[in-house]
Amino acid sequence: MHSDKAKEFMLKVFNKSGISPTSTYLPAAIHPCISEEPRNGIPEAMAEARMVMCGAVSDLLEKTGTHPSEIDIVITNCSIFCPTPSLASMLVNHFKFGRDIQSYHLGGMGCGNGQEEGVCAVGLVRDLLQARPNAKALFVPAEITTYCYYPGTETKYLVANCIFRMGGAAILFSNRTDMRGRAKYQLLHSERVHTGADDAAYACMGWEPDSQGVNGVYLGKDVVVQAGKALTHCLTAVAPKILTWTQYSQAALNALQRSWLGPSTPKYTPDFTKTIVSHFAIHAGGYAVLKGIQKAMRLPASNMLPSFAALRDYGNTSCSTTWYVMAYQEACGGVGRGEVVMQIGMGGGMKAGVNLWRALRVNHCAHPAWRHLMDQPLTEADLPRSIDEERQQESASDTVGVAAAPARAAAMAAAAAAAGATQGAQLKASVAARATIEVYAVQDGVGA
Questions:
Q1: Would you state the CATH architecture of domain 189-383?
Q2: How many CA within 13 A on the CB side of residue 207?
Q3: Is 2 helix (H, G, I), strand (E, B) or coil?
Q4: How far is 274 from 253, CA to CA, in rounded Å?
Q5: pLDDT in tens, the chain (448 residues)
Q6: Which residues are catalytic?
Q7: Is the pTM of this model over 0.90?
Q8: Does residue 350 have a cis peptide bond before it, meaning omega lies within 30 degrees of 0?
Q9: The FAE domain covers which part of the protein (predicted)?
Q10: First CA to last CA across the chain, in angstroms?
């Protein structure tokens, strides 16, 4: 399918991606161990959507003891695959939701659909619940990788083949007072920034045909830079919500110094580990994305490990990555009552967003997505690529020139290492079990 040159390029990208060669998942239609030739048509994409989205919702309803008739609002997210009827309508049909249900599908926002859009969508959920008392809202983010598969040869489109993997989430929100005792989190604040007015930010990533007319997701060389700029604006806006009084005074002093001494005085950057935030759920878009955010926020490796763990075991699941990260935090160490989780994401456009969640109870559970770790947190030594800069440089010489592709990687070199993640006919059951995530949250109208 791909030329030797394209395979070599994709393998090189994969080896630097921070993704495990044996843990991530691809749908059967584009998996080199199952399909002779990749099939990325609408029927195959719908099959993946039903497996991931319906599977996640089924698990959520069962776990929370919620009957489909109790759902008042349903919102689905998928950036690229937007069929008619919509994916929201697919869920309405599958679960036989009521005729008065409000349904929405959000698309075209890239990885932001679930993080930034987990801000945008959560913001939408918040607004809808404020207008509809005593309601329950279902939020289902997923990116359908079958439809995103790129069979062409141009490098800027091939990168997506290397990092995007199968996954999805289902989250239940409610503003009902009788649900507060059962809820995991309360939404404190939701912040969103859109830098699409800038041409470079708008054009740094997207979905379009290549020079041969083959559709694919393209990632520009400056995508990390543009994401960083958007995130900087977002963090600046959210900072007043999370700073301590000591940090407020430091920021005020810095503002005075800059007014007296001029802009040559460095701007104040808070130590995010000393704010009210206890946990950081950061979009696992790729190794470079996570390293860029770590550098910008000056976070230690321990705060980054949950996101690198999600990248290792699930790859870039686009709009659902931060929900996998939150599930890891619950499964490996737990989130204590009253602790604040900062959910950070960005997506095409360029957009960035932050959600602040307060845990209403101790959340420590063996989540299905992380059951394979048996309640044992990963260490940095378990990662394919080190978070630590010095160790990263030491290991670089060991990875250069390594070309260990599975036997059938010729069908899709982007899945070279992912091919080892499956065991024949067990693929479908394994994916269905591990690609499902549930976070049960309450929304009570608090927040901007």
A1: 3-Layer(aba) Sandwich (3.40)
A2: 18
A3: coil
A4: 18
A5: 677 788 888 889 999 999 998 889 999 999 888 888 889 999 999 999 999 999 999 999 999 999 999 999 999 999 899 999 999 999 999 999 999 999 999 987 765 544 445 556 888 898 899 999 999 999 999 999 999 999 988 888 999 999 999 999 999 999 998 888 889 999 999 888 899 999 999 998 889 999 999 999 988 888 888 888 898 899 999 999 999 999 999 989 989 998 898 888 888 888 999 999 999 999 998 898 899 899 889 999 999 999 999 999 999 998 899 999 999 999 998 999 999 999 998 888 888 889 999 999 998 888 889 999 988 899 999 999 988 755 555 444 333 333 233 222 323 333 333 333 323 223 333 333 333 334 444 443 332 2
A6: 111, 194, 279, 283, 316
A7: no
A8: yes
A9: 4-258
A10: 50
**Amino acid identity for residue 414 in this structure:** A
How far, CA to CA in Å, does 149 sit from each of 26, 80, 433? 10, 11, 23
The reply to whether 4-184 and 189-383 are identical in fold is yes
Of the candidates 331, 417, 421, the one whose C-alpha atom is nearest the C-alpha of residue 369 is 331
236: which 2 tokens?
């600046």
**Is the alpha carbon torsion for 368, 372, 374, 377 positive or negative?**
negative
**How is residue 415 annotated by DSSP?**
G
Provide the token pair at 106: 């959000």
- DSSP letter (8 states) at residue 267: P
Taking alpha carbons only, the member of 370, 265, 384 closest to residue 325 is 370
Dihedral sign (CA 287, 289, 290, 292): positive
Per the listing, tokens 């390293």 go with 291
CB within 8 Å of 51: residues ≥ 6 apart: 27, 428, 431, 432, 435
Residue 222 burial by Cβ neighbours in a 10 Å radius (0-12, 13-18, 19+) = middle
- CATH 3.40.47.10 correct for 4-184: yes
